[in-house]
Amino acid sequence: MAQIFRRSADTWLRLGLLMLLVAVLGGLLVALTLDSTDYRTGRDWVIDQPLPFSHAHHAGQLQIDCRYCHASVESSAMASLPPTETCMTCHSQIWKQSDVLEPLRKSLRDLQPLHWNRVVDLPDYVYFHHGVHVNAGVGCSECHGQVDRMQLLFKAEPLNMGQCLACHRDPAPHLRPLDQVTNQHWHTDEDRRVLGERLMKARHIDTAGLTDCGTCHR
Ligand code: HEC
Ligand code: HEC
Ligand code: HEC
Ligand code: HEC
Ligand code: HEC
Fold first, then answer.
1. Which of 40, 82, 111, 147 is 20–30 Å from 158 (CA)?
2. Tens of pLDDT along 26-36?
3. With contact defined as beta carbons under 8 Å apart, do 150 and 55 qualify?
4. pLDDT tens digits, residue range 39-94?
5. In the chain, how many H helices and how many E strands?
6. How far is the CA of 80 from the centre of ligand 1 (A)?
7. What lines the ligand 1 site, CB under 6 Å?
8. Which atom of ligand 2 is the closest one to the Cα of 87?
9. Where exactly are the structural domains of the chain?
């Protein structure tokens, strides 16, 4: 019988298949790495805002407590963003002519709140509650990083399911005294685990159920 394909076709076929395999594996590898990188989680990204509000200046140098502007962080699911009036307690006097603050004055004139773009935003299918964490002694910096050093705010932690679960499995070393939750420079010489175990007992924190899917997906 006459040969339909030349002998070399076999070699080309093998080479083609090999290249296909390499391409598929390579693609998979790229997808897997991107999935867990900062690109996917939006970490360290700076987002445009209506005016350049600096946490470094206000929370850092001026040492205004987080709760002055994020008033419901201890009581509600949402920390809340400050209304224009909160800024105006100072800026009706300080820097009141400055151009950077014009959006603030416009917001007051038009009775329209400033539209801040969200930096940390979980998908809708995830349930989160600030009050529960803050009242358990989890400091803001555990999840938001050194906010008091950020000129423009960025997402410093991935805050993905892996990070939530890692702490929910073993929260003790992440806890601190309640009056230190907003302190960005809190430090203790005591062993964090020893302190944490004691705080957990005192506050009746039980890890049973904390890693159940239904805790965060309800
Ligand atoms: C256990 C982690 C964790 C801790 C502790 C935490 N946050 Fe958050 N924060 C988050 C997550 C997650 C979101 C995004 C929530 C969402 O999209 O529903 C968020 C969102 C926010 C927001 C914007 C949306 C909102 O809730 O109004 C502000 C402001 C905020 N946090 C401030 C704070 C402050 C201030 C503290 C400390 C007193 C704090 N957070 C402690 C995880 C945390
Ligand atoms: C407790 C007082 C106080 C409050 C409240 C306050 N600021 Fe300020 N702000 C200041 C002071 C003080 C300065 C710095 C003035 C200077 O350096 O000469 C400043 C400076 C600024 C600047 C200039 C850029 C910079 O950071 O140096 C902007 C923009 C600004 N504030 C926006 C806001 C916004 C928006 C709010 C509300 C979310 C707010 N401020 C709330 C006191 C305050
Ligand atoms: C003077 C008011 C003021 C103080 C004090 C302040 N913040 Fe904010 N915060 C804001 C404003 C305004 C925004 C929205 C603009 C932005 O994202 O920078 C914001 C945004 C945030 C966000 C991002 C919310 C989101 O998802 O968009 C976090 C997280 C946050 N603040 C944490 C803190 C922490 C932690 C402290 C204390 C160390 C603090 N803030 C102190 C005014 C304040
Ligand atoms: C650094 C530690 C830490 C991180 C990170 C953390 N949690 Fe928690 N979370 C806790 C602790 C501690 C409790 C238990 C509080 C208690 O029982 O008083 C808790 C409780 C909860 C609860 C239970 C509320 C209830 O109804 O009892 C939810 C929901 C929750 N966390 C969601 C999340 C989500 C979503 C994330 C990630 C975005 C997250 N947590 C990240 C420490 C953490
Ligand atoms: C402590 C909170 C927490 C618990 C418990 C939890 N999740 Fe999640 N889950 C999250 C957060 C936060 C996200 C979204 C952020 C991300 O991309 O990881 C998420 C995302 C997901 C997604 C979407 C993943 C994707 O890549 O789009 C699935 C599916 C999921 N979770 C399933 C589960 C299952 C199944 C369980 C129980 C075994 C569970 N989760 C327990 C916090 C939690």
1. 82
2. 766 666 565 55
3. yes
4. 556 666 677 899 999 999 999 999 999 999 999 999 999 999 999 999 999 999 99
5. 11, 0
6. 9
7. 66, 70, 73, 78-81, 120-122, 128, 130, 133-134, 138, 140, 142-144, 159, 181-182
8. 37
9. 7-31, 55-81+116-216
Q: What is the pLDDT of residues 110-126, one digit of tens each?
A: 999 999 999 999 999 99
How many residues are recorded in the chain?
218
* CB 74 within 8 Å of CB 67: yes
* Closest ligand 5 atom to 167 CA: 1
What would the DSSP string read from start to end of 182-205?
Answer: T-TT---SS-HHHHHHHHHHHTT-
